[in-house]
Amino acid sequence: MPPAENRLLQTARPVLEVNGQEQASFTEMLLEMLIVENVQGLYRCELKLSNWGVSGEGTGFQFLDRSKIDFGHGLKIKPQGDETIIFNGRVMGFEAEYPQGQSPAIVLLAEDRLQDLRMTRRTRSFEDTSDADLFRQVARDHSLRDDIQLEGPTHRALAQVNQSDLAFLRERARLLEVELWLEEDTLHACPRSARGAETVRLSYGGSLHSFTVQADLAAQRTSVKAHGWDVGAKQTVSHAADKSPVSNELDGNKSGADILEEKIGARIESLVHTVPFSQEEARTYAEGYFRTMARRFVTGTGTTNFDPKLRVGNLVEIEALGPMFSGKYYICEVRHTFDQASGFRTQFSVERPFISE
Fold first, then answer.
1. Per DSSP, what are the bridge partners of residue 270?
2. 276, 278, 280, 286 alpha-carbon torsion, rounded to 10°
3. Which of 294, 223, 217 is nearest to 263 (CA)?
């Protein structure tokens, strides 16, 4: 039998606010909820509500006249008895369901304000700029505040060619191996190590309902090389990254690259879709690619009762999995769900660059 507080979290309903006003009737009519967040930003939400009931003019559809909620309305969601906001965005779509033998339902589709960046497509160039300056410029373009913690070279030229602002920032974030997200009206971008992670503890056979995990060498490499051309110096530039970019995340354990070299042999990857124009760019791209690859050595998915601390950017420490897979993982995706059968739950995806010794 789970602890009483866990049972309470499981059966509690989320609280819904529309344009800053709590909507108790929406909470009562809620059938299903899905909130998804990941390291690429643009968090999204789906709310399924009963669309049939009694109103001032009799029995009928509840939401189709758009008087209670409409396109562009602000939507916030938080758990009962807790001021932690687990979604903050705007309504972007409606989906009506008319099932046989059941009451009709309406599904509200919402996204956070990164959808502004997704819906703005441009072709433009940037000269003598750093990635930090580029991210700040895009934030200003959309009247967002910024919290940008990026290091890296100043680029002679960068081009955004028929890309949305969001796709452009995501492309730069992947090359630098930084994470992108929005809180309220502030655009954040920083390396994983700078997110200030909290640790949530779960235990198999206790608070953790289920967990599936695998360690896979297929996508691992012992080294990643980036090659390019320095136009000003008229010479080639190159950098080979090994496990050193993730050495501070290993906690004395073996990485996928270590095990690959020990059990199979050296395997080297060359980056061919990215062309650095300086030695610093070559180092940044090679190390960024290696970090992304190395962190996917061990991946897992789990389910537990709803916990607002299970957020992208935090750590989860899982106990009782045995020596190979117990320990800390980085949370890279979270799906908060609600339905009338299972109540309020959290599904999460995790990764780490090592197996425990």
1. 225
2. 20
3. 217
Mapped onto helix, strand or coil, the DSSP state of residue 267 is coil
Chain centroid to Cα 26, Å, comes to 27
Pairing label, strands 105-111, 87-97: antiparallel
Contact status, residue 165 vs residue 142, Cβ threshold 8 Å: yes
* Contact in structure between 101 and 34 (CB atoms under 8 Å): no
What pTM, to 2 d.p., does this model score?
0.89
The position carrying tokens 């997200």 is 181
| Both tokens assigned to 102 | 């059941």
Q: CA 188, CA 146: separation in Å to the nearest integer?
A: 6
Residue length of the chain? 357
Per residue in 48-92, pLDDT tens? 999 988 876 778 888 888 989 999 999 999 988 888 899 999 999
Give which of 113, 74, 68, 82 is closest to 8, Cα–Cα: 82
Query: Tens digits of per-residue pLDDT, 92-120?
Result: 999 999 999 999 999 999 999 999 999 99
The residues near 306 (Cβ < 8 Å, ≥ 6 apart) are 9, 10, 12, 79, 336, 343, 344, 345, 346
Residues 6+ apart with CB under 8 A from 112: 41, 42, 43, 44, 87, 88, 89, 90, 182
Longest dimension (CA), the chain: 79
DSSP class of residue 245 equals: G
Under 8 Å between Cβ of 331 and 39:
no
- In whole angstroms, give the CA distance from residue 264 to residue 150: 36
- The pair of structure tokens assigned to 204 is 């198999």
* Cα–Cα nearest to 8, from 344, 354, 346: 344
Residue 102 per-residue DSSP state: S
Alpha-carbon span 162 to 293, nearest angstrom: 28
Q: Which two tokens mark 71?
A: 């396109």
